[in-house]
Amino acid sequence: MTAIIIALTLGIVVGAFNLLPKIFYRVIDKLMSVILFVLIFVLIVSIASNETIVGNLAAIGISAFVLAFGSIIGSIILLYLLQQKWFKEER
Predict the structure, then answer these.
(1) What distance, in Å, lies between the first and last C-alpha atoms of the chain?
(2) Can you give the pLDDT at residue 52?
(3) Where does residue 47 rank: exposed (0-12), middle (13-18), buried (19+ CB within 10 A)?
(4) How confident is residue 89, by pLDDT bands cut at 50, 70 and 90?
(5) 3-class secondary structure per residue, 1-64
(6) How far apart (Å, rounded) are the C-alpha atoms in residues 28 and 40?
(7) How far does Cα 82 stand from its chain's mean position?
(8) Alpha-carbon distances, residue 16 vs 12, 19, 61 (angstroms)
(9) Dihedral of the alpha carbons of 48, 53, 57, 63, in degrees to the nearest 10
(10) Span 10-49, pLDDT tens digits
(11) Cα–Cα distances in Å, from 54 out to 3, 38, 67?
């Protein structure tokens, strides 16, 4: 947990004070999108390959599917909006 907090703090400091050359920010922007899609793919694969979840899907119900799908779509939309707000001038 400490490593996560340190990484977040360093990321905030580096981003807030523009401590990296501009080319790195462009690379990081593209890398973030790729990593996000990979994480979403891995999440879907892990859910679909879990026999317990798939076997109990009827019991879990549509609400679990809607919650998971809504979380994914919400994350994508929020990331897009934040990128449009903070990285608008770079495009």
Answers:
(1) 35
(2) 86
(3) middle
(4) low
(5) CHHHHHHHHHHHHHHHCCCCCHHHHHHHHHHHHHHHHHHHHHHHHHHHHCHHHHHCHHHHCHHH
(6) 18
(7) 12
(8) 6, 8, 44
(9) -90
(10) 989 988 888 888 888 888 888 999 999 999 999 989 988 9
(11) 34, 21, 16
Residue reference for tokens 């119900």:
61
Indicate the range of 4-8, 11-15, 84-88 predicted with least confidence.
Answer: 84-88
Cα(39)–Cα(47) distance, rounded to whole angstroms?
12
Regarding pTM above 0.85, the answer is: no
